[in-house]
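On clarity, I found the account of how folds are encoded harder to follow than it need be. Since the whole study asks how a given chain folds, the encoding of that fold should be made plain. The format is easy to grasp once an entry is in front of the reader. For illustration, here is how one protein appears when written out as sequence plus structure tokens.
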Amino acid sequence: MKSNPINQMKKLSVVFFLTFFSCASITEEIYLNADGSGEYLVYSDVISSTQSMMMGMMSGMYPDASEDSLRQIVDEQIWAEFPAEIDSIIDFSGRVPDSIKNDPAKKKYLDKMEMFMKGSKAERYLNSGMRFSFRSIEDLQGFQDFMNENQTATSGGMGMEMPSVNVKYSFDANSFSRVSDMEIKMDENDSSMLVLGELLKGSKSRLILHLPRKVKSVSKGLVVDQSGKDVIFEFDLIKVLNGEQSTDVKVEF
């Protein structure tokens, strides 16, 4: 049963602070059916990234303290007011510009997007992200194009040029592939990039594929796990952002 976000507002004050002020590893999951339909999810584990950031800050403030003692303090601060379970849908419609809401070609993607927050105190995680159900690979491709176009249109006010990724999917009865072209790369000499590099040190970009049949071979991508119908790829997030590492994948099944 879904939790009511309003009833948990006080308990979630720490949660929303973590969401807005953390840089995290990013995970994409694609569930593919044999007919090309499926579900796409993208999310980050807010807790793990926040732990790393807080550990970095506290180690600078208390250089003589042991890592174990600092980690204990950080964990106590993070989980002190955390509810036992979080499983909430986030209403983001108020932040969507009318230019998208009033455009049927864009609104069809917006209507199938769902922002969520899911976590557990016992399991020590909090995922914040978005899911999208698609009817076909073409539908998923249209959604990715919509997301990329919207990011490009709204990133100017952030004070820095954000990366833009052109993603192309291909799917047939025996294979799936993704080709990613970083159209706008982060300049590694830019001051913003230097700060981002420190914040994202060690962060990963993961792609998890759940395919309709057992995997036969993987010809592209940095595989970290492969079992049955599932494949997990992992990339260095900062290398992806500056264009140093490709996130292209190709799987046959």
Remarks:
- Confidence is low (pLDDT under 50) at residues 1-22, 152-162.
- The longest strand covers residues 125-134.
- DSSP finds eight helices and twelve strands in the chain.
